[in-house]
Design a protein that fits this description.
It is a single chain. By secondary structure, the protein is an alpha+beta fold. The chain has 2 domains: 155 residues, no CATH class; 173 residues, no CATH class. Helices cover 28% and strands 20% of the residues. It contains 10 helices and 13 strands. The strands form 3 sheets. An 8-stranded antiparallel sheet has the order 8-7-13-12-11-10-3-9, with no helix packed on it. A 3-stranded antiparallel sheet has the order 4-5-6, with no helix packed on it. A hairpin with a 4-residue loop joins strand 12 and strand 13. Helix 6 packs antiparallel against helix 7 and helix 6 runs parallel beside helix 8. The longest helix has 14 residues. It is globular, with a radius of gyration of 21 Å. The two termini are 34 Å apart. The structure holds zinc ion (ZN) (2 copies). One zinc ion binds next to loops. The site of one zinc ion has 7 residues, from loops.
């Protein structure tokens, strides 16, 4: 596919949802780009005078999340261009930046204002240099944003490489159907039954009301998950308890494991035309995602999976994120509305 046609399709998607006459979703077309086509599309977009910079950002975002035939990293040229053009880039684009891009960013961080602007971008570039730099800043979420953090001086990955996506299906549990059902154990705050969401590598679930207000921890007990005694009710939840006690209906939808192959970046943004319910890979909120600390060992928990609210209930929205501590067999869940 030539660069011109690719841009046309990307713009069509931006303007009107799915493209007419194209059967494949846009991310699949970016996935198929050869190394030559990828390089051409980058050059063509950089030089394009007609597109505004936000439209260009979407093209770079798709390239960063889906175009891997060119290799692990996108060309430095793209990042050098972005640093010249705008500091307002989607940080996800920097997930495919080579380690030396971290040095370019750090060199540019001359003032406090510049530092604030480069930190989100830098947090996506996995390198010793960015880890060192971030450790010396007053960061809030940026130290985990790229899906890794520094623990005891070493880089710890906060995700699982294998990605298992799900799709809607009226199937049976044998097909890899996501259980999505309430279990006998109760939430320690609202006394509603906990809901089992995934049951692949380990059972993952939570109280789907209380976890909208704060991170809810679970622990493993006889192959099932249960309420963790370390959960402490926050003031926000306390204030919303009337609403919480109204409860929530049973999950309505059914999902099964999809055969689609995905890389860790595929679901890393809410901006692209891909479904987000999956196990493994990177979570889709790059900024402000709260990776909890394990209530027993205190280490950062790793991201295990996410489910869209609309994949639980017809009217559902937002996203539930699940985390685990593999040392202690604990789980955690939190929620984001957007
Ligand atoms: Zn609850
Ligand atoms: Zn732990």
């Amino acid at each position: 596919m030539n660069a011109d046609r690719m841009l046309e399709l990307t713009m069509e998607l931006l303007e009107g949802g799915m493209m007419s006459g194209e059967i494949k979703p846009l991310y699949k077309l970016y996935e198929e780009l050869s190394p030559k086509e990828t390089a051409e599309l980058i050059d063509y977009t950089i030089d394009n005078q007609k597109m505004d910079s936000w439209d260009k950002q979407v093209v770079y975002l798709y390239l960063a999340l889906y175009s891997y035939q060119i290799g692990e990293y996108l060309p430095d040229k793209l990042y050098a261009h972005l640093m010249k053009e705008t500091w307002d880039s989607y940080p996800e684009i920097f997930l495919r930046a080579a380690p030396q891009v971290a040095e370019m960013l750090i060199d540019a961080a001359q003032t406090d204002e510049m530092r604030d602007q480069i930190i989100p971008l830098l947090s996506a570039v996995r390198s010793e240099k960015s880890a060192e730099f971030l450790a010396g800043t007053d960061h809030r979420w940026e130290d985990t944003a790229g899906g890794w953090c520094l623990e005891k001086g070493k880089i710890k990955e906060l995700y699982r490489e294998e990605v298992v996506p799900f799709e809607e299906s009226p199937g049976t549990e044998e097909d890899g159907w996501v259980p999505l059902r309430r279990i006998d154990r109760l939430c320690g705050f609202c006394r509603h039954p906990l809901t089992l969401i995934f049951n692949q590598k380990e059972p993952l679930g939570s109280c789907l009301v209380c976890s909208c207000y704060q991170t809810i921890y679970t622990r493993m007990e006889q192959g099932e998950f249960a309420w963790h005694e370390q959960n402490r009710k926050t003031e926000i939840l306390e204030q919303c308890m009337d609403r919480v006690l109204d409860g929530y209906p049973n999950p309505e939808r059914k999902l099964k494991r999809s055969k689609e192959f995905r890389r860790i970046t595929y679901s890393a943004s809410i901006m692209t035309d891909i479904s987000h319910t999956q196990l493994g890979g990177l979570p889709c909120r790059f900024d402000h995602l709260d990776y909890p600390d394990c209530p027993d060992c205190g280490e950062k928990m790793i991201f295990a999976g996410q489910i869209e609210g609309q994949d639980i209930w017809e009217w559902g929205d937002g996203m539930y994120y699940f985390y685990v501590c593999e040392n202690c067999n604990n789980g955690a869940c939190n929620y984001d509305q957007t």
